[in-house]
């Protein structure tokens, strides 16, 4: 494994060049909620849109940890930090909603301390052809300690974490009589939003079966909107979307092959000089 530090926020752009020129490599980007969603937001959405064959791990601790604790694009409204002493006024990004809006072909979320789940999600991302975005909830014990405690505490996580598995009913919480969780996720018929119900009261008929491979991202998007930014209750983790789309690297390589077949290999010196050049003599 070889690694390099790129420019802050620009890792997806540099990784795009590497992935398209060296298709034999497995290219991974390790980024955070600060650089990926602020200074690097443009690069992130276009890498997702193009579906470049690279994997983006977005470590989200909802704070600027490296630069000593300023609020980040995922910090909750009212967050008191060194740069927002009276509380943040900004509405936070939802990274997975953003990724789906950018037409990402693979979108997932996991938690840093859940090693088994983290490993399974990373394996799925590695096997995916195209851009895979994995949001990883990560604690910052210096500047934002306990940000995801509700998802990490065993007792509270049972009612807060929704573990998504392709082809399985979206159930969670304390077990009901059928052995599955007593809470379920359904689609509201009026609004189309996803909402949580108690299956012991409303039954299981309307409970969604998770389909990560659905062509439309609408249900996946609805799932990303379940979690409240402040309490993080009803937070889905797992692979929300995994669909096949044309991969940018392959398309570019095929286009170059067609150009060479039709026109032959180009002359770089001629290309650089072009027709609009002059020789200046004394």
Characterise the protein shown here.
There is one protein chain. The protein has 282 residues and is of the alpha/beta class. The protein has 2 domains: 11-167 and 210-273, 3-Layer(aba) Sandwich (Rossmann fold), CATH 3.40.50; 169-209, no CATH class. Helices cover 32% and strands 19% of the residues. Strands 1-2-4-3-9-5 form a 6-stranded mixed β-sheet, sandwiched between helices. Strands 6-7-8 form a 3-stranded antiparallel β-sheet. The chain is globular.
CATH architecture group name of the largest domain? 3-Layer(aba) Sandwich
Strand order of the largest sheet: 1-2-4-3-9-5
Helix-strand sequence: HEHHEHEHEHHEEEEHHEHH
Mean pLDDT: 93
Number of strands: 9
Rounded to an integer in angstroms, the radius of gyration calculated over CA atoms is 22 Å
Fraction of residues in helix: 25-40%
CATH class of the largest domain: Alpha Beta
What would the keywords be for this entry?
single chain, 282 residues, 6-stranded mixed β-sheet, alpha/beta, Rossmann fold
